[in-house]
Amino acid sequence: MYPIPIPIPIPMRSQRRLTALAAIASLAAAVLLTGCASSPRVETRPVLSQHGADKTTDLRIAESALESGDTQLAISLFERALNADPSSLPAELGLADAIYQTGDLARSGVLYRQAAAAAPNDPRAQLGLARVALRERRLDEAVSRYRQLLSAHPDNAVAAEGLGAALDLQGKHGEAQAVYRSALARHPEAQGLKANLGLSLILDRRARDGANVLLDIAGLPDAPAQARENLALAYGVLGNAEAAKQILTADMPAASAEDNLQFYRSLRDAWSARPGATHADADADAEARAGKLAADDAVRVQAVPSSQGPAAEAVQ
Fold first, then answer.
1. Are residues 145 and 162 located together in one domain of the fold?
2. What span, in angstroms and rounded, lies between the C-alpha atoms of 157 and 161?
3. Which terminus of the chain, N or C, has fewer Cβ atoms within 10 Å?
4. What is the pTM (predicted TM-score) of this model?
Protein backbone atom coordinates (compact mmCIF):
# COMPACT_ATOMS: atom_id res chain seq x y z
CA MET A 1 0.00 0.00 0.00
CA TYR A 2 3.29 1.31 -1.89
CA PRO A 3 4.51 2.64 -3.16
CA ILE A 4 10.23 5.49 -2.83
CA PRO A 5 13.61 4.17 -3.57
CA ILE A 6 16.30 2.91 -1.28
CA PRO A 7 19.84 3.70 -2.37
CA ILE A 8 21.95 0.63 -3.07
CA PRO A 9 25.64 0.99 -2.25
CA ILE A 10 27.16 0.77 -5.75
CA PRO A 11 30.72 1.99 -6.07
CA MET A 12 30.39 2.83 -9.77
CA ARG A 13 28.38 5.00 -12.15
CA SER A 14 25.89 2.94 -14.10
CA GLN A 15 23.22 3.79 -16.63
CA ARG A 16 21.14 0.76 -15.72
CA ARG A 17 17.87 1.19 -13.94
CA LEU A 18 17.37 -0.16 -10.42
CA THR A 19 14.25 -2.31 -10.42
CA ALA A 20 14.42 -3.65 -6.88
CA LEU A 21 15.08 -0.26 -5.32
CA ALA A 22 12.07 1.20 -7.03
CA ALA A 23 10.14 -1.72 -5.58
CA ILE A 24 10.74 -0.67 -2.01
CA ALA A 25 10.02 2.89 -2.87
CA SER A 26 6.70 1.85 -4.32
CA LEU A 27 6.13 -0.41 -1.29
CA ALA A 28 6.74 2.33 1.18
CA ALA A 29 4.42 4.65 -0.61
CA ALA A 30 1.74 2.10 -1.34
CA VAL A 31 1.87 0.42 2.05
CA LEU A 32 1.50 3.70 3.83
CA LEU A 33 -1.67 4.37 1.93
CA THR A 34 -3.33 1.54 3.81
CA GLY A 35 -2.97 3.41 7.07
CA CYS A 36 -5.33 6.16 5.95
CA ALA A 37 -9.07 5.92 5.62
CA SER A 38 -11.21 8.28 3.59
CA SER A 39 -14.64 9.15 2.32
CA PRO A 40 -17.35 11.05 -0.14
CA ARG A 41 -20.36 10.39 -2.37
CA VAL A 42 -21.23 9.25 -5.82
CA GLU A 43 -24.78 10.29 -6.45
CA THR A 44 -25.64 12.75 -9.20
CA ARG A 45 -27.93 14.83 -6.98
CA PRO A 46 -26.51 17.52 -4.69
CA VAL A 47 -24.32 16.23 -1.90
CA LEU A 48 -26.71 17.48 0.74
CA SER A 49 -30.05 16.23 -0.47
CA GLN A 50 -33.36 17.02 1.19
CA HIS A 51 -33.69 13.37 2.04
CA GLY A 52 -30.39 13.32 3.91
CA ALA A 53 -28.21 10.74 2.22
CA ASP A 54 -26.09 8.46 4.39
CA LYS A 55 -22.77 10.29 4.53
CA THR A 56 -20.96 7.24 5.86
CA THR A 57 -22.08 5.25 2.84
CA ASP A 58 -21.01 8.05 0.53
CA LEU A 59 -17.56 8.12 2.08
CA ARG A 60 -17.29 4.37 1.75
CA ILE A 61 -18.05 4.61 -1.95
CA ALA A 62 -15.33 7.17 -2.43
CA GLU A 63 -12.87 5.07 -0.45
CA SER A 64 -13.73 2.05 -2.59
CA ALA A 65 -13.01 4.09 -5.71
CA LEU A 66 -9.60 4.99 -4.28
CA GLU A 67 -8.79 1.41 -3.32
CA SER A 68 -9.78 0.17 -6.77
CA GLY A 69 -7.34 2.61 -8.35
CA ASP A 70 -9.85 5.11 -9.74
CA THR A 71 -8.10 8.10 -8.22
CA GLN A 72 -9.81 10.72 -10.38
CA LEU A 73 -13.26 9.53 -9.36
CA ALA A 74 -12.13 9.36 -5.73
CA ILE A 75 -10.76 12.91 -5.88
CA SER A 76 -14.01 14.18 -7.36
CA LEU A 77 -16.09 12.48 -4.71
CA PHE A 78 -13.89 13.51 -1.80
CA GLU A 79 -13.87 17.11 -3.01
CA ARG A 80 -17.67 17.11 -3.18
CA ALA A 81 -17.91 15.73 0.32
CA LEU A 82 -15.42 18.27 1.64
CA ASN A 83 -17.29 21.12 -0.05
CA ALA A 84 -20.49 19.92 1.58
CA ASP A 85 -18.84 19.61 4.98
CA PRO A 86 -15.53 21.51 5.24
CA SER A 87 -14.96 20.13 8.75
CA SER A 88 -15.12 16.48 7.61
CA LEU A 89 -11.82 14.92 8.65
CA PRO A 90 -12.48 11.63 6.78
CA ALA A 91 -13.17 13.56 3.57
CA GLU A 92 -10.04 15.67 3.97
CA LEU A 93 -7.85 12.64 4.68
CA GLY A 94 -9.42 10.73 1.81
CA LEU A 95 -8.75 13.59 -0.57
CA ALA A 96 -5.16 13.80 0.69
CA ASP A 97 -4.69 10.05 0.09
CA ALA A 98 -6.13 10.27 -3.42
CA ILE A 99 -4.00 13.26 -4.36
CA TYR A 100 -0.94 11.55 -2.87
CA GLN A 101 -1.51 8.64 -5.22
CA THR A 102 -1.32 11.00 -8.19
CA GLY A 103 2.15 12.05 -7.06
CA ASP A 104 1.17 15.60 -6.07
CA LEU A 105 3.13 15.59 -2.83
CA ALA A 106 2.86 19.34 -2.25
CA ARG A 107 -0.93 19.43 -2.33
CA SER A 108 -1.38 16.21 -0.37
CA GLY A 109 1.07 17.52 2.22
CA VAL A 110 -1.02 20.66 2.68
CA LEU A 111 -4.14 18.57 3.26
CA TYR A 112 -2.36 16.26 5.72
CA ARG A 113 -1.07 19.29 7.65
CA GLN A 114 -4.55 20.77 7.81
CA ALA A 115 -5.94 17.47 9.08
CA ALA A 116 -3.15 17.16 11.63
CA ALA A 117 -3.84 20.70 12.87
CA ALA A 118 -7.52 19.85 13.33
CA ALA A 119 -6.81 16.47 14.95
CA PRO A 120 -3.20 16.35 16.24
CA ASN A 121 -3.55 12.83 17.60
CA ASP A 122 -5.11 11.29 14.50
CA PRO A 123 -2.60 8.66 13.31
CA ARG A 124 -3.87 8.85 9.72
CA ALA A 125 -2.83 12.48 9.35
CA GLN A 126 0.55 11.84 10.98
CA LEU A 127 1.08 8.80 8.75
CA GLY A 128 0.36 10.92 5.69
CA LEU A 129 2.90 13.53 6.74
CA ALA A 130 5.48 10.82 7.35
CA ARG A 131 5.09 9.23 3.96
CA VAL A 132 5.23 12.59 2.17
CA ALA A 133 8.48 13.32 4.03
CA LEU A 134 9.81 9.92 2.96
CA ARG A 135 8.93 10.47 -0.70
CA GLU A 136 10.52 13.91 -0.64
CA ARG A 137 13.70 12.48 0.91
CA ARG A 138 13.36 14.48 4.10
CA LEU A 139 14.61 11.37 5.82
CA ASP A 140 15.34 12.73 9.29
CA GLU A 141 11.81 14.10 9.49
CA ALA A 142 10.36 10.86 8.14
CA VAL A 143 12.24 8.77 10.71
CA SER A 144 11.14 11.10 13.51
CA ARG A 145 7.48 10.98 12.48
CA TYR A 146 7.45 7.22 12.07
CA ARG A 147 9.14 6.72 15.45
CA GLN A 148 6.52 8.92 17.10
CA LEU A 149 3.75 6.94 15.43
CA LEU A 150 5.22 3.62 16.55
CA SER A 151 5.69 4.93 20.07
CA ALA A 152 2.00 5.83 20.25
CA HIS A 153 0.81 2.84 18.20
CA PRO A 154 3.31 -0.03 18.60
CA ASP A 155 1.06 -2.46 16.72
CA ASN A 156 0.97 -0.34 13.56
CA ALA A 157 2.71 -2.51 10.97
CA VAL A 158 2.36 0.19 8.30
CA ALA A 159 4.34 2.67 10.40
CA ALA A 160 6.99 0.00 11.00
CA GLU A 161 7.37 -0.57 7.26
CA GLY A 162 7.71 3.16 6.69
CA LEU A 163 10.30 3.55 9.44
CA GLY A 164 12.32 0.65 8.09
CA ALA A 165 12.21 2.09 4.57
CA ALA A 166 13.41 5.48 5.82
CA LEU A 167 16.28 3.87 7.75
CA ASP A 168 17.25 1.81 4.70
CA LEU A 169 17.29 5.00 2.64
CA GLN A 170 19.73 6.42 5.19
CA GLY A 171 21.92 3.34 4.78
CA LYS A 172 21.13 2.16 8.32
CA HIS A 173 20.28 -1.36 7.25
CA GLY A 174 20.93 -2.98 10.62
CA GLU A 175 18.51 -0.62 12.35
CA ALA A 176 15.95 -1.13 9.60
CA GLN A 177 16.17 -4.91 9.95
CA ALA A 178 15.65 -4.64 13.71
CA VAL A 179 12.47 -2.63 13.06
CA TYR A 180 11.18 -5.18 10.54
CA ARG A 181 11.92 -8.14 12.79
CA SER A 182 10.28 -6.51 15.80
CA ALA A 183 7.16 -5.77 13.77
CA LEU A 184 7.13 -9.30 12.31
CA ALA A 185 7.13 -10.70 15.84
CA ARG A 186 3.78 -8.92 16.27
CA HIS A 187 2.56 -9.44 12.70
CA PRO A 188 4.13 -12.63 11.29
CA GLU A 189 1.61 -12.62 8.43
CA ALA A 190 2.63 -9.17 7.14
CA GLN A 191 4.12 -9.88 3.71
CA GLY A 192 5.16 -6.27 3.19
CA LEU A 193 7.41 -6.44 6.25
CA LYS A 194 9.07 -9.59 4.93
CA ALA A 195 9.53 -8.05 1.48
CA ASN A 196 11.19 -5.03 3.09
CA LEU A 197 13.36 -7.20 5.32
CA GLY A 198 14.52 -9.28 2.36
CA LEU A 199 15.54 -6.21 0.37
CA SER A 200 17.24 -4.64 3.38
CA LEU A 201 19.37 -7.75 3.77
CA ILE A 202 20.31 -7.62 0.08
CA LEU A 203 21.30 -3.96 0.40
CA ASP A 204 23.35 -4.96 3.44
CA ARG A 205 25.21 -7.38 1.14
CA ARG A 206 23.60 -10.44 2.70
CA ALA A 207 21.85 -11.57 -0.46
CA ARG A 208 21.58 -15.23 0.56
CA ASP A 209 19.81 -14.33 3.78
CA GLY A 210 17.59 -11.92 1.88
CA ALA A 211 16.67 -14.51 -0.75
CA ASN A 212 15.71 -17.06 1.87
CA VAL A 213 13.45 -14.54 3.61
CA LEU A 214 11.81 -13.67 0.29
CA LEU A 215 11.32 -17.32 -0.69
CA ASP A 216 8.85 -17.63 2.19
CA ILE A 217 6.43 -15.33 0.40
CA ALA A 218 7.44 -14.84 -3.24
CA GLY A 219 5.64 -17.95 -4.50
CA LEU A 220 2.35 -17.21 -2.73
CA PRO A 221 -0.58 -16.25 -4.99
CA ASP A 222 -1.15 -13.01 -3.08
CA ALA A 223 2.50 -12.12 -2.57
CA PRO A 224 3.34 -8.45 -3.14
CA ALA A 225 5.11 -7.74 -6.41
CA GLN A 226 7.96 -6.20 -4.46
CA ALA A 227 8.82 -9.56 -2.92
CA ARG A 228 9.25 -11.11 -6.33
CA GLU A 229 11.22 -8.17 -7.69
CA ASN A 230 13.49 -8.23 -4.66
CA LEU A 231 14.03 -11.97 -5.08
CA ALA A 232 15.13 -11.42 -8.68
CA LEU A 233 17.69 -8.91 -7.43
CA ALA A 234 18.94 -11.38 -4.82
CA TYR A 235 19.46 -14.12 -7.39
CA GLY A 236 21.08 -11.66 -9.76
CA VAL A 237 23.73 -10.46 -7.31
CA LEU A 238 24.30 -14.06 -6.23
CA GLY A 239 25.13 -14.94 -9.83
CA ASN A 240 22.05 -17.09 -10.48
CA ALA A 241 20.98 -15.28 -13.65
CA GLU A 242 18.66 -18.07 -14.78
CA ALA A 243 16.57 -17.86 -11.60
CA ALA A 244 16.47 -14.08 -11.84
CA LYS A 245 15.43 -14.27 -15.49
CA GLN A 246 12.68 -16.77 -14.67
CA ILE A 247 11.12 -14.20 -12.37
CA LEU A 248 11.66 -11.16 -14.55
CA THR A 249 10.43 -12.59 -17.85
CA ALA A 250 7.14 -13.68 -16.31
CA ASP A 251 5.74 -10.18 -16.66
CA MET A 252 8.03 -7.99 -18.74
CA PRO A 253 9.51 -7.93 -22.24
CA ALA A 254 12.73 -9.85 -22.74
CA ALA A 255 14.62 -6.62 -23.44
CA SER A 256 13.54 -5.12 -20.12
CA ALA A 257 14.47 -8.30 -18.29
CA GLU A 258 17.90 -8.26 -19.92
CA ASP A 259 18.35 -4.63 -18.89
CA ASN A 260 17.74 -5.60 -15.28
CA LEU A 261 19.94 -8.67 -15.51
CA GLN A 262 22.76 -6.53 -16.85
CA PHE A 263 22.41 -4.21 -13.90
CA TYR A 264 22.49 -7.16 -11.50
CA ARG A 265 25.73 -8.31 -13.13
CA SER A 266 27.22 -4.84 -12.81
CA LEU A 267 26.23 -4.65 -9.16
CA ARG A 268 27.61 -8.12 -8.45
CA ASP A 269 30.90 -7.21 -10.12
CA ALA A 270 31.13 -3.95 -8.22
CA TRP A 271 30.50 -5.57 -4.85
CA SER A 272 32.94 -8.37 -5.63
CA ALA A 273 35.65 -5.95 -6.74
CA ARG A 274 35.29 -3.70 -3.71
CA PRO A 275 33.98 -5.82 -0.83
CA GLY A 276 35.13 -3.25 1.71
CA ALA A 277 33.57 -0.24 0.05
CA THR A 278 31.24 1.79 2.19
CA HIS A 279 27.52 2.00 1.53
CA ALA A 280 27.88 5.74 0.87
CA ASP A 281 30.20 5.25 -2.11
CA ALA A 282 27.45 5.63 -4.71
CA ASP A 283 24.33 6.54 -2.79
CA ALA A 284 23.69 9.65 -4.87
CA ASP A 285 23.94 7.77 -8.17
CA ALA A 286 21.82 4.86 -6.94
CA GLU A 287 19.17 7.15 -5.50
CA ALA A 288 18.93 9.17 -8.70
CA ARG A 289 18.46 6.06 -10.84
CA ALA A 290 16.05 4.48 -8.35
CA GLY A 291 14.04 7.68 -8.18
CA LYS A 292 13.70 7.79 -11.96
CA LEU A 293 12.45 4.23 -12.07
CA ALA A 294 10.01 4.86 -9.24
CA ALA A 295 8.59 7.76 -11.25
CA ASP A 296 8.30 5.58 -14.34
CA ASP A 297 6.62 2.80 -12.35
CA ALA A 298 8.18 0.68 -15.03
CA VAL A 299 8.54 -2.88 -13.84
CA ARG A 300 6.24 -5.43 -12.28
CA VAL A 301 7.00 -9.15 -11.85
CA GLN A 302 4.74 -12.21 -11.73
CA ALA A 303 4.82 -14.85 -9.02
CA VAL A 304 7.71 -17.25 -8.79
CA PRO A 305 6.54 -20.84 -9.41
CA SER A 306 6.25 -22.38 -5.97
CA SER A 307 7.12 -25.94 -6.88
CA GLN A 308 9.49 -25.86 -9.81
CA GLY A 309 12.54 -24.11 -11.17
CA PRO A 310 15.54 -22.60 -9.45
CA ALA A 311 13.55 -19.69 -8.03
CA ALA A 312 11.62 -22.06 -5.76
CA GLU A 313 14.67 -23.57 -4.09
CA ALA A 314 16.24 -22.33 -0.88
CA VAL A 315 19.56 -20.58 -1.28
CA GLN A 316 22.35 -22.53 0.38
1. no
2. 6
3. C
4. 0.71
